[in-house]
Specification:
alpha/beta, binds adenosine-5'-diphosphate, five-stranded parallel beta sheet
C-alpha cells in the first residue's frame, strides 16, 4: 500500500478541458499497456508501433522498463514493494501522457495482476482508455531468445526473483489483446495493435 503524505494540496483544474485540447490537436489519448515475460517482445513491438504511429503524424510515446529505471524510478529495486511502486508511477505518468492526447505505450513485465489493475483503475477513474496487451510468448521461447542473457543468469542463480524462473507471472484475465509472437513477424504484431486502436476508436483508421 502506498503511503499518502498529508499535505495541503488541491487539484487545480486548468482553463483548457481535455475535449478542447484533443479537438484542437486532432488527437485522442490512451494507454496501451504491454505486459509479458522478459524477452516476450514487448519493447520490440512497442518500439515498432511507436515508429509507425509517429510516421503517420500521431503522437505516440514509449515508456520502457529499463529506460524509466534510469531516471524517474532509479531509486527502485526489484522487491515486490519496489516493483509495485515502479508500476504505480508508470501508470500515473502514462495517464498524464494519455490525458495530453498522446498514445502512451508502456512496456514493463508488470507481473502482478493487482499492480496492472491499479493502473487500469487510475485510467478508468480519469475517463481515459487503458488497453492491456498481453504479449503471450511461451517461457521456453523467451528463454531461447534471451537477448540480454538474463534467463541464463537467473538459471545459474546469479539473479534472484526473476519473473518466470523463481518469481511468478500472473497472466491477465481480461486483456484487450493477446499476442503470441512465436513464429510471427514484428510487423504482423504491430498490425494487430493498430487494428485494436481503430476498433477502440483511439485511431480513426489503421
Ligand atoms: P521484452 O521487451 O518483452 O523483454 P524484447 O522486445 O526486448 O522483449 O525482446 C524480444 C526478442 O524477441 C527480440 O530479440 C526480438 O527480435 C524477438 N522477436 C522475434 N519475433 C518477435 C515478434 N513477432 N515480436 C516481437 N519480438 C520478436
Amino acid at each position: 500500500m502506498i503511503e499518502t503524505k498529508p499535505t495541503n494540496i488541491h487539484w487545480h483544474e486548468g482553463d483548457l478541458s481535455r475535449d478542447e485540447r484533443w479537438k484542437a490537436l486532432g488527437t485522442r489519448g490512451a494507454t496501451l499497456w504491454f505486459t509479458g515475460l522478459s524477452a516476450s517482445g514487448k519493447s520490440t513491438i512497442a518500439s515498432a508501433l511507436e515508429q509507425t504511429l509517429v510516421n503517420k503524424g500521431i503522437n505516440a510515446y514509449r515508456l520502457d522498463g529499463d529506460n524509466v529505471r534510469h531516471g524517474l524510478n532509479k531509486n527502485l529495486g526489484f522487491s515486490a514493494e519496489d516493483r509495485a511502486e515502479n508500476i504505480r508511477r508508470i501508470g500515473e505518468v502514462a495517464k498524464l501522457f494519455a490525458d495530453s492526447g498522446a498514445i502512451a505505450l508502456t512496456s514493463f513485465i508488470s507481473p502482478y495482476r493487482a499492480d496492472r489493475d491499479l493502473c487500469r483503475k487510475l485510467h478508468d477513474d480519469a475517463g481515459l482508455g487503458f488497453i492491456e496487451v498481453f504479449v503471450d510468448t511461451p517461457l521456453e521461447v523467451c528463454e531461447q531468445r534471451d537477448p540480454k542473457g538474463l534467463y541464463k543468469k537467473a538459471r545459474a542463480g546469479e539473479i534472484k526473483g526473476f519473473t518466470g524462473i523463481d518469481d511468478p507471472y500472473e497472466a491477465p484475465e481480461k486483456a484487450e489483446l493477446t499476442i503470441n509472437t512465436e513464429g510471427r513477424s514484428v510487423d504482423e504484431c504491430v498490425a494487430e495493435c493498430l487494428k485494436l486502436l481503430v476498433d477502440r476508436r483511439v485511431l480513426a483508421k489503421g
